[in-house]
Write a structure and sequence with these properties.
mainly alpha; 3 helices; 55% helix
Length: 106
């Protein structure tokens, strides 16, 4: 009887090999449509003629007093470099500090 039940089991129909790729194709289509659709819709929705206020350099309400290519002092660059140096240094020193603290705080 067990042998008879085993022989009555039908093999499930196996589709063509392309059916295994349907999820990949759907994912690829969504991955292409998702970023392209907002760009295309934005092209049709946005205004074509810009007003004078929109074309100004700053839209925050403050009129610009100098040109866009004003020179900065050397002190500005020195402070920026010091910030980067000490910021990166703390990233490298943090693992050492955790190791030397021991297992009390981990």
């Amino acid at each position: 009887m067990l042998l008879q039940a085993a022989t009555n089991v039908t093999n499930p129909t196996i589709g063509s090999p392309i059916t295994a790729y349907w999820p990949v194709m759907i994912f690829f289509a969504v991955a292409v449509i998702f970023p392209v659709l907002p760009i295309v819709l934005g092209r049709f929705i946005r205004p074509i003629n810009y007003e004078k206020g929109k074309m100004r350099p700053y839209e925050c309400g403050i009129d610009p007093t100098t040109g866009a290519h004003e020179r900065f002092t050397v002190r500005y660059y020195i402070v920026a470099m010091l910030f980067l140096i000490f910021d990166v240094e703390t990233i490298f020193l943090l693992p050492w500090a955790l190791i030397f603290m021991g297992d009390d705080f981990s």
